[in-house]
Structures are given as structure tokens and as C-alpha cells.
Design brief:
By secondary structure, the protein is mainly α. The chain is built from five helices and no strands. The C terminus is likely disordered.
């Protein structure tokens, strides 16, 4: 779903068998799903009183942002990782 959300209708139309109308419908559905999830999730962080969970969340989000930025527009396939190996990489992103 994230791929559809992050694509334009024009990009989706380039997929064989997808018409512009179907691409626009897919894009609209992905946008609606994103908004529904975004509205149902909330997490507050008190900057003056960070818990370990808050710090871990911030570190993991920074790692995910680094991963997203470093793989943007990449056509290479990523290897699946276990929870531990992913977390190890997220806590200490390379190149920063």
C-alpha cells in the first residue's frame, strides 16, 4: 500500500493492465487508508521528560528515515532482516 501511496496516478498507469481511471481509484483508496491510519494513531512525547521508550522510538525513527533516504529511487532489492539485525542497524545508521 505504501508503494501505491507514494506513487502518482501517472506512475501507476505505467503498470501493464492499469488504466488512468484505475490508477486514480487506487491512489484515492491509498490516500484514504493513509488518512484513516494517521487519524487513528497518536503518540505524545514530553520532550522535558523522555522515557526510555520515547528515546528508543526516536532512535528507530531516525534510523528508518536514514534507511528511507538512502534507498530512495533505488531499484536494488533489500534482504529481509530479523528483528534484532534490523534494530542493530537502526540504532547506529552508517554514514551519519
Amino acid at each position: 500500500m505504501a508503494s501505491v501511496y507514494n506513487s502518482s496516478a501517472i506512475q501507476l498507469e505505467r503498470i501493464p493492465g492499469i488504466t488512468l481511471n484505475a490508477a486514480q481509484s487506487l491512489k484515492s483508496l491509498a490516500d484514504q487508508m493513509y488518512n484513516a491510519v494517521a487519524q487513528s494513531i497518536s503518540y505524545g512525547i514530553d520532550i522535558d521528560d523522555l522515557t526510555k521508550a520515547d528515546s528508543d522510538l526516536i532512535e528507530n525513527l531516525q534510523g528508518l528515515d536514514y534507511l528511507r533516504a538512502s534507498t530512495k529511487n533505488s531499484t536494488s532489492k533489500m534482504k529481509p532482516c530479523t528483528t534484532n539485525s534490523c534494530q542493530d542497524g537502526l540504532h547506529q545508521p552508517q554514514g551519519r
